[in-house]
Amino acid sequence: MKLAALGDSAVIVTLGDTPDAATVAAGCALATALESKPLPGLIECAQANASVTVFYDPVRVPKRAGLSPFERVCRWIVDRAPAPGPVALPAGRAITLPVCYGGEFGLDLELVGAACGLTADEVIALHSGAEYFVSAIGFIPGFPYLRGLPERLHTPRRKTPRTRVPAGSVAIGGPQTGIYPFETPGGWNLIGCTPWRLFNAYSQTPSLLQVGDRVRFQPISPEEYGSSRSS
Amino acid sequence: MSRIHVLRPGLMTTVQDLGRPGWQRYGVTPGGAADPCALRLANLLTGNSETAAALEITAAGPILRFAEETLVAIAGAEFEASVQGIRVPAWRPVRLGAGAELTIGAARTGLRCYLAVGGGLAVPRVLGGRGTHLAAGFGGFDGRALRAGDVLKIGPPPAWAKRLILTLAGAGAFAAARWEVGAAVRPKYAEAPVIRVVRGPQWDAFSPETQKRFLGERFTVGARSDRMGLRLKAAGDALLGEPLREIVSEGVAAGTVQVPPDGQPIVLMAERQTVGGYPKLATVAGVDLPLLAQVRAGAAIAFAEITVAEAQELWLASDRFLATVKQGIALHAT
Q1: pTM of this prediction?
Q2: Rounded distance between C-alpha atoms, residue B246 and residue B259, angstroms
Q3: Which of B39, B171, B230, B271 has the highest CB neighbour count under 10 A?
Q4: Nearest by CB to B308, which of A70, A142, A201?
């Protein structure tokens, strides 16, 4: 566990080098432990990939002689952290998302295939044949970082990001796959599109997916995409 | 419920408050006012709690018609503001008569000002906040910047605002209090400020040359800067000789200085992303975020390093200062 100041009101706690299942599980366990008995001044603990970022209000952190609020928060994190050792990932749900691959739904499918030495159909088969787990929700509301992308599909991000990525786009960025919940600029390679809504600010669980969820993709036709979207 | 009619929206006018913490695990940025200090002071000057929703006005302001008598206050950057052609002063409570049209013109200095109304703007809370999340299109007024024809509702005015309206009663279209939040109390805005920073989590991954240049040179604020971030440009070569490898995406904060492969730093602002994969060179001290929110495209800013403990002492001192200002304002309507 490594602690580093992220300015004067946050600490990044790093739990490992890669967002593998064990590291993600340790991050979730730490965030839960910290929030279950919060230090006054704690604002939120946000797990993401291999770390947890602890946000706090330095004004409200209890004062202790000789310690800055940052040092006080660091001690509290170390004291409250669960003992190191294997932790289970939160019992995530198994979710299968429909995806219409290629064509106007995934403008970069052919490019990804060319970069990986695969046909478009092979890319679809590999991408929809794997099971992924959510290692973080972030960057923009509801965007899932999915681990478990077959190595043959690892594709570098685009050199020049697109100024406009359509909502629902399923994309590959390096060793990860992810889904853009709404229209935004983005640099990942677009291979398909899901008709499902990933983020709804007016719900108490605004993100469809949560860290630990296991995700599969089910190829659908443009017609199925259209009917699923309107229903 | 009293109303505000938007006759002209201004360049980018949004409803903002002090943000919606608690949802970053779902990728939702806390957001809120780019200059939280100005928003808090504007709210206090109308008897509101510091956290009430107000208008964030950018570069060129709106024309607003107030259906009923309302207590308002403007704080932040210096804008032209008038009613019936007569200048309306900032940093103090102002009673607007029923039907008054408040015209907020161009910024004279700085970039953003805040217009608070006694009672606060009555927009629904979404995920705990009333601020506008522009990129995701929710919160604030319809999840977007104001347009001509919009009608904003005002919440019930607090007792303090009602008392002050009586004190400022008169036949005119508006009346300003004779006291103000003095210049000594306001944030020390500057055209080309020196911004205090603490070392970022990946500071050591940058070369000594890059570290030295970051703290020694001035950086120009790019035109593509907005509520999400300020894009900076080094005067000479890009800040990095060799691009650093991307890191596993992790948390970022308002004020995080990240360096993408092109070597031109980006300072994340209020409507920042929640995680990022670029290495983080530094983080702006919380007390200097209001200064950063007021720099315009083309300005040349510099950075100076302080320790985390120093940044926190400054933050605690500014909070104590604000508490005394708050007491001072409260006394004025008793």
Answers
A1: 0.95
A2: 10
A3: B39
A4: A70
